[in-house]
Amino acid sequence: MANRDVPVNGKRSSLSLLKNGNLVLSDAGQFDVWDTKTLSAKPLELHLHDTGNLVLREQTNRSSVLWQSFNFPTDTLLPGQILTRFTTLVSSRSEGNYSSGFYKLFFDNDNVFRLLYEGPQVSSVYWPDPWLVSNNVGSGNGRSSYNSSRVAVLDELGKFSASDAFSYKTIDYGLLLQRRLTLDYDGNVRIYSRENGQEDWSITGQFKSQPCFIHGICGPYSICNHEQATGRKCVCLEGYSWIDSQDWSLGCKPNFQPTCDNKTEYRFVALYEVDFYGYDYGSSFSNYTYKQCEKWCSELCQCKGFQFSFPQDNGPFWCYPKTQLLNGHRSPGFRGQFFLRLPKGSAKENNLQNNEGLVCPRNAEKVLERPYVKGKENGSVKFVLRFAVGLGGFEVVCIFMVWCFLFRSSNHLVREDQQGYVLAAAAGCRRYTYSELKQATKGFSEEIGRGAGGTVYKGMLSDNRIAAIKKLHEFADQGESEFLTEMSIIGRLNHMNLIGMWGYCVDGKHRILVYEYMENGSLANNLSSNSLDWSKRYNIAMGMAKGLAYLHEECLEWILHCDIKPQNILLDSDYQPKVADFGLSKPLNRNNLNNSSFSRIRGTRGYMAPEWVFNLQITSKVDVYSYGIVVLEMITGRSPMIGVQDTEPGAESHERLATWVREKRRKAPEGASWVEQIVDPTLGSDYNVKQLEILAKVALDCVEEEKDVRPSMSQVVERLQSHEHGS
């Protein structure tokens, strides 16, 4: 990942080997993003070795290497790739974000191989264990600083060795397998192995056996807890709440206003078997009583709490006042307690009021006056002043009117460039003229779809490609904004389950988008024609989930679609689904995922999440809800737009499809397969029962009223993939 912090779009970007010997990566706008900075007048070739090393070398002298990827690792080492004093492994930011993260693996100036957390505010070494300070072999952390070569390497048999006397063997050591060592986004170094021909990697070793001992993993003012069955979990301290519930590494913030005055009274909350590493005030204080330690922390402005421990059976009590609460974790067997300092009266949970800000009271206003001596008026001077002021005012008005006219004219001329052309250039799309698209569609004669924002026509482009050409309504209220939104979003997306955009048109009042053509139309049309067998329906549900997971968590700018429905799911010649129509979409703020503002309700009745109706916080879970409704519609063959009536005599009708399905599950006899009562009758008995059960359960989880209970789309993908082959 040479350009991990400057990613490019997959469309129209290029990797070129220039005549001067420089290997250059260019984006869609033909700007150089990265290069090898090599120069040579001799013929060169780029060769990928079986080891994974990408080498730029001379054609006539292949031993003459100008550049190789093994010298520039990112977060991974391959067997035979040497980590030196000049190279560092840097983790990714998150599972789907491959930009530089907070963790580094490197040799320090003492020749010791270390793991470092380098966060936005603090940095600290967490491996080898910081409290083991000795560098002598056989004691302390078992490292040696006497070898200045500073090299480390993983071999094909599964052994990792470093020049500071550290070595590690995988659990499958000795087998000749494909291997890689990766510094993962959570700060742990893992060795992965797999046999030739396999797709999935298995973890066969990791440097840190206790994930909660990794610094920064849960952020400030939180506690990390790890259990074998449930994995790692981060919890805010009492009196604190998450800065961003989607990113635990940012930590928690106080639900109270921190103050430094002698008037504030504090209470101390005991936390058992909890330890916070580092940031002691001064040093530890021996032979302190609890009351002395509490008094000391109450009077110290920077104190956030204190550790009160007794490490030995007959030893003294130790007091450790903490100025910052970082790297908190549960430590079973820890001999002592941590006491968290909180203002008296602070709530246990986050119940912050929505303050309106400071308002100046009316009685606080006072007009400042300055007395002056009134002199004798001069009539001539008064007339001249009035005339000058009037003439000057008239000139200002004239100049302002002329300026407005010129500005409006120039703004009209450049508006298309500023909004349309620049966006399209960034997206790497072609610009078409209106006459070209009119000719391609034979005068916009073959209509294949229609929506609130525009009409879609089938057309043949000049390069003989069949395209879907979406012409936005000329005077639609949202037409211009939908055009700019859709072009800016789709042009940057690159996923097999998202519709691809080929071009655009900004010609006078015309706004047109050009997409790839989907041979099998929309999911809505196929459901109404009963042309989908069970395997196609399951694969469509899987593809939709993958496309939405990419939008929500994997693409460069996370996106809410806001209008998932069968009409917006298109099917290609192989019935692979592609999510389309991004006119109502909205980018997500990664730094504050729970604060997505919307000026109006978006979506289609029957598929909209309850958050829209009740004016609740809008998150990616609105798309999850809509996805669940679409899946229920595929399973049952019933539309959510109309009431659902059972075929049994005297059965009640339900306004909502999800309610009807839940009732079927609730009333099903124990041990009976309730899903067979809801399946689309047109399928007959030609379906996989296990797949039907998992898909129905996933859909019901997606349409839960409470958004926090719904799964994420990546979790949906994982659940469906486990039954993809009917197992």
UniProtKB/TrEMBL annotation:
It is found in: Membrane. ATP binds at residue 471. This is Receptor-like serine/threonine-protein kinase. InterPro entries: Bulb-type_lectin_dom, Bulb-type_lectin_dom_sf, Kinase-like_dom_sf, Prot_kinase_dom, Protein_kinase_ATP_BS, S_locus_glycoprot_dom, Ser/Thr_kinase_AS, SRK-like_kinase. It is a single-pass type I membrane protein. GO terms for molecular function: ATP binding; protein serine kinase activity; protein serine/threonine kinase activity. It comes from the Eukaryota. SMART domains: S_TKc. It catalyses: L-seryl-[protein] + ATP = O-phospho-L-seryl-[protein] + ADP + H(+); L-threonyl-[protein] + ATP = O-phospho-L-threonyl-[protein] + ADP + H(+). It holds the Pfam family B_lectin. Belongs to the protein kinase superfamily. Ser/Thr protein kinase family. It comes from Phaseolus vulgaris.
